[in-house]
Specification:
Layout: E1 2-3, E2 9-14, H1 19-22, E3 30-34, E4 37-38, H2 42-48, E5 53-60, E6 63-70, E7 79-81, E8 89-90, H3 119-125, H4 136-144, E9 150-153, H5 159-166, H6 173-182, E10 187-193, H7 200-211, E11 217-224, H8 242-263, E12 268-270, H9 272-278, H10 300-316, E13 326-332, H11 336-343, E14 351-357, H12 374-381, E15 389-393, H13 408-415, E16 419-422, H14 426-434
Parallel strand pairs: 9-10, 10-11, 11-12, 13-14, 13-15, 15-16
Antiparallel strand pairs: 1-8, 2-3, 2-7, 3-4, 3-5, 5-6
Helix pairs in contact: 8-9, 10-14, 12-13
Length: 436
C-alpha cells in the first residue's frame, strides 16, 4: 500500500548560482518529467539527471514549460525537494507477531503509527524493510539504479515460519536476496529475535543461510523483540532474561569465530541489550568492525565507553568552579547503570546525578532511553532537586518533542529547571556543560 501524495517532485529550495536559478525555477514548482520519464522520488530524479542533455518539464500552477539543458554529467541542477518520495510512502501490510507499532497506546505522535516498508527509505535512510511488497520490477529498479546497501528485516529464512511471523504471504526472502546479490546489491540484515519462536536451531539456520551469502550479506544483527503491555497479538513472546541473553551471546560468539575463520569478518552481532541484560561486558570497538549496525543498537555502549576516555581530556580543562555546578541526567533504566558508573568517575569536577526513568507509558519491559516519554520524566522527577541543568538524551526527541507529544519546554516548565538535550555520549555531554 502507498500513502499517496502528489506524483510530481515539488521544489523546496533553489541553490544560489545554480542552473535552476538561472532558468528561473522557483520553490513550489513541480518537476513533471526528465527526458520523458516521470519521477516517483528523489532517487529517480538523481538517476535521470545524471546525463549531459536534459529535457525537463516544469509545472507552475496550471502552466507547464519545457526546458532543454546541457551540462556536465555530474553537475546537479541545484534544487532540493520538499519530500524525497513524490508518490507517497509504501506502508507495511504485514501483521508481525512482534510489531512494535501494533503495541503502541493511543495519543502518541501521529507519525509513530505509520508502518513504512519502503525500499527507497531503506536506501536513503537505512530503514529496515521486509521486501514483502517488492515486485520483480522493483528488484530490477534496485539493481539498475544501484540502490546499495539496503537494510532488510529477515527474522528467519524458514519460509513457513517467516510467513507466520509476518502474518502474511511473502516471497521467499533468500530468493530475493539471491536476485539482488546477482545484481551486485549488498545488504545489512536483521533478525528480531522472539523467544521460543525464531531462536535456537531456527536462529542457527537463519545465520547459516545468510552467512553463506557473504559478501553480499554484509552484516547480520540479532536484536530482541520490544514488548509492551499494550501488545494484543495472541502469540505469546516471553521477554528475555539474564540466562537467555547469556546463551544467545555464547551462540553468537561461536558463529563469529566461524565466520572470522572463513571470511575474515565476524559478520553477525548481538544487540547491546543482550549484554546489559546478561551483565556481560560489551566487546572492544575493533570487534564491531566499523559499527555497521550501530543504528540498530549494536555497539552504542562501546561507543559511549570509548567516548568516556576522550571526555577526560575535556574534563581536565574545566574551570575550578565547575564542581559547584549540579547536573542531572535522565535516561532509560537499561543504560542508567553504565551512565551512573561513568558519572562517578568525575565527582571532583562535576556533581552529576543520574535518574533512571521507568517507562510507565510502554511498561517496564521497555527500558531504552530512546523510548522515554516526556510525561514519565515529569512525573518521576517532579519535586527532585535537579540542580542547574537537566540533560535529556537527544535520541528520546524529534524536533524537541517526545513520542508522547510532550515538548522539551513543557518538561522545563513543569520541573521549573533548565533542560537541554545532548547526543548520548560523554564528550557531547561535557561539551554541553562547558558551554553553559
Amino acid at each position: 500500500m502507498i500513502v499517496s501524495k502528489n506524483t510530481n517532485g515539488i521544489i523546496d529550495i533553489i541553490a544560489q548560482d545554480s542552473i535552476a536559478e538561472d532558468l528561473g525555477w522557483m520553490p513550489g514548482d513541480e518537476i513533471v518529467s526528465v527526458n520523458g520519464h516521470t519521477l516517483s522520488d528523489l532517487i529517480d530524479y538523481q538517476f535521470c539527471t545524471a546525463e549531459e542533455y536534459l529535457r525537463v518539464i516544469i509545472k507552475r500552477g496550471a502552466e507547464t514549460a519545457e526546458f532543454e539543458i546541457e551540462k556536465d554529467i555530474d553537475l546537479d541542477l541545484g534544487i532540493t525537494f520538499k519530500d524525497a518520495l513524490f508518490d507517497g510512502v509504501r506502508t507495511c501490510g504485514a501483521k508481525c507477531v512482534f510489531c512494535f507499532v501494533d503495541q503502541l497506546p493511543k495519543g502518541l505522535r501521529k507519525s509513530l503509527y505509520l508502518k513504512d516498508d519502503d525500499f527507497r527509505l531503506s536506501f536513503l535512510h537505512s530503514n529496515f524493510v521486509t521486501l514483502t511488497n517488492v515486485s520483480d520490477s522493483d528488484l530490477f529498479r534496485i539493481i539498475e539504479q544501484r540502490l546499495s546497501p539496503l537494510y532488510v528485516s529477515v527474522h528467519t529464512t524458514a519460509p513457513a515460519l517467516r510467513q507466520m511471523m509476518l502474518g502474511r504471504p511473502s516471497p521467499a526472502i533468500l530468493d530475493q536476496i539471491d536476485v539482488l546479490a546477482k545484481g551486485g546489491i549488498t545488504l545489512h540484515t536483521q533478525v528480531v529475535l522472539c523467544r521460543n519462536l525464531n531462536d535456537s536451531e531456527k536462529l542457527d539456520r537463519t545465520i547459516s543461510e545468510l552467512g553463506a551469502r557473504y559478501p553480499y550479506v554484509k552484516s547480520i544483527a540479532i536484536v530482541p523483540a520490544g514488548l509492551t503491555p499494550h501488545r494484543r497479538h495472541k502469540k505469546s513472546i516471553p521477554p528475555i532474561d539474564a540466562q537467555y541473553s547469556a546463551d544467545i551471546l555464547d551462540n553468537i560468539r561461536r558463529w563469529q569465530r566461524r565466520f572470522k575463520s572463513e571470511y575474515g569478518t565476524r559478520l553477525v552481532w548481538a544487540a547491546d541489550e543482550f549484554y546489559l541484560c546478561a551483565g556481560k561486558a560489551v566487546p572492544v570497538a575493533a570487534a564491531y568492525e566499523g559499527f555497521p549496525q550501530i543504528g540498530n543498537g549494536i555497539g552504542l555502549v562501546r561507543k559511549f565507553q570509548d567516548s568516556a576516555y576522550r571526555a577526560k581530556r575535556i574534563l581536565s580543562a574545566l574551570p575550578s568552579d565547575s564542581a559547584k555546578k549540579r547536573i542531572s541526567v535522565a535516561t532509560g533504566t537499561l543504560a542508567a547503570p553504565v551512565v551512573t558508573k561513568w558519572a562517578a568517575t568525575f565527582t571532583d569536577k562535576l556533581k552529576t546525578k543520574v535518574y533512571p526513568i521507568e517507562n510507565r507509558l510502554f511498561g517496564d519491559t521497555v527500558t531504552v532511553a530512546g523510548l522515554m516519554a516526556g510525561r514519565d520524566i515529569i512525573d518521576q522527577l517532579r519535586g527532585k532537586q535537579l540542580g542547574d541543568l537537566l540533560v535529556i538524551p537527544s535520541i528520546a526527541l524529534r524536533d524537541d518533542t517526545f513520542l508522547d507529544d510532550v515538548k522539551l519546554v513543557d518538561v522545563e516548565t513543569a520541573l521549573n529547571t533548565r533542560v537541554a538535550s545532548s547526543y548520548p555520549s560523554p564528550t557531547a555531554f561535557i561539551r554541553l556543560i562547558t558551554s553553559l
